[in-house]
């Protein structure tokens, strides 16, 4: 099975280790993983800001790079949502391109959803020991129904304890340009999310979208919490003792 990995901008620039963890998970499950080195943004920032032309340009690029793959996997709910749900709105006048995009969108999955529902992965080889709590990102949860998939994989790790925080589905306040345009509101939302996560007593906050995780981690540090770790679910699922 040929699986293309769409790395995402944030992972490429801020925490490439997540990309390598995703590759490891897919290869361990028997996939032949392709990572085009000239891939770029999914187009979501421009699209959300009303720049549909840049969205069309990047959607075309995505199709060119991944059209030959059996599946495309993305370690991000928001980028997956853009590809699966919004690419099809960009080319109403081009039937042929629309058909290609629709077909590829249907073969594009968020990482944990792909592992659980397509590859039927039941266990992972992680050596993580400790307590984690899971933050549900808005796009993953509300656009793609990503809820039980990451929890099922985390529960398969023998020495990991998953403790649910109150309001796990509450937005962290990031929302891409939302946190820039409405900073005061976004900060209060991040404070609330950090409070609920800290109350859980977990050592690590885990999620599936790096944008959320960077936002949460940044707010924790500004609040003086230098202890609670913040990790992408792929990093926990591939954790090895040092």
Structural topology:
Elements: E1 2-5, H1 9-14, H2 17-28, E2 32-34, H3 44-48, H4 52-66, E3 71-74, H5 77-86, H6 95-106, E4 108-110, H7 111-118, E5 130-134, H8 138-144, H9 148-155, E6 160-162, H10 178-181, H11 183-199, E7 204-207, H12 210-222, E8 229-232, H13 233-237
Parallel strand pairs: 1-2, 1-3, 3-4, 5-6, 5-7, 7-8
Helix pairs in contact: 4-6, 5-8, 7-9, 11-12
3D structure, described in words:
- The chain is of the alpha/beta class.
- It has two domains: 2-118, Rossmann fold (3-Layer(aba) Sandwich), CATH 3.40.50; 130-237, Rossmann fold, CATH 3.40.50.
- The chain has 13 helices and eight strands.
- A four-stranded parallel sheet has the order 2-1-3-4, with helices on both faces.
- Helix 12 (210-222) links the parallel strand 7 (204-207) and strand 8.
- Helix 4 packs across helix 6, helix 7 crosses helix 9 (148-155) and helix 11 packs across helix 12 (210-222).
- The chain is globular, with a radius of gyration of 18 Å.
Short description:
This protein is an alpha/beta fold and 242 residues long. Helix content is 50%, strand content 12%. The protein has 13 helices and eight strands.
Key features?
8 strands, four-stranded parallel beta sheet, Rossmann fold, 2 domains
Q: What structural class do you assign from the helix and strand content?
A: alpha/beta
User: Could you please say which CATH topology of the largest domain applies here?
Assistant: Rossmann fold
Radius of gyration: 18 Å
> Number of DSSP strands?
8
Global morphology: globular
Query: β content, as a range?
Result: 5-15%
Biggest sheet, spatial arrangement of strands: 2-1-3-4
| Helicity, as a percent range | 40-55%
Regarding CATH, which class of the largest domain? Answer: Alpha Beta
CATH-defined architecture of the largest domain: 3-Layer(aba) Sandwich
Number of domains: 2
- Count of helices? 13
The SSE string, one letter per element, is EHHEHHEHHEHEHHEHHEHEH
Average pLDDT, all residues: 94
- Biggest β-sheet, characterized? 4 strands, parallel
Note the gap between the termini: 32 Å
Low-confidence segments: none
């Amino acid at each position: 099975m040929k699986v293309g990995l769409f790395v995402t901008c944030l992972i490429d620039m801020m925490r490439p280790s997540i990309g390598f963890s995703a590759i490891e998970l897919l290869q361990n499950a028997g996939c032949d993983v392709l990572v085009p080195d000239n891939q770029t943004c999914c187009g979501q920032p421009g699209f959300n800001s009303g720049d549909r032309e840049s969205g069309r340009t990047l959607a075309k690029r995505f199709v060119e790079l991944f059209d030959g793959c059996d599946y495309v996997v993305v370690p991000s709910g928001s980028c997956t949502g853009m590809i699966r749900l919004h690419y099809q709105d960009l080319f109403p006048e081009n039937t042929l391109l629309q058909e290609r995009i629709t077909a590829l969108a249907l073969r594009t999955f968020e990482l944990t959803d792909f592992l659980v529902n397509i590859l039927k992965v039941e266990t992972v080889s992680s050596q993580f020991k400790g307590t984690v709590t899971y933050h549900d990102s808005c796009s993953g949860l509300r656009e793609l129904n990503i809820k039980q998939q990451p929890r099922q994989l985390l529960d398969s790790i023998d020495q990991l304890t998953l403790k649910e925080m109150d309001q796990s589905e509450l937005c962290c306040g990031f929302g891409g340009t939302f946190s820039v345009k409405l900073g005061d509101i976004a900060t209060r939302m991040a404070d609330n999310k950090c409070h609920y996560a800290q109350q859980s007593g977990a050592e690590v906050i885990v999620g599936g979208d790096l944008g959320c995780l960077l936002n949460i981690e940044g707010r924790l540090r500004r609040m003086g919490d230098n202890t609670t770790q913040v990790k992408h679910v792929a990093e926990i699922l591939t954790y090895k003792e040092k």
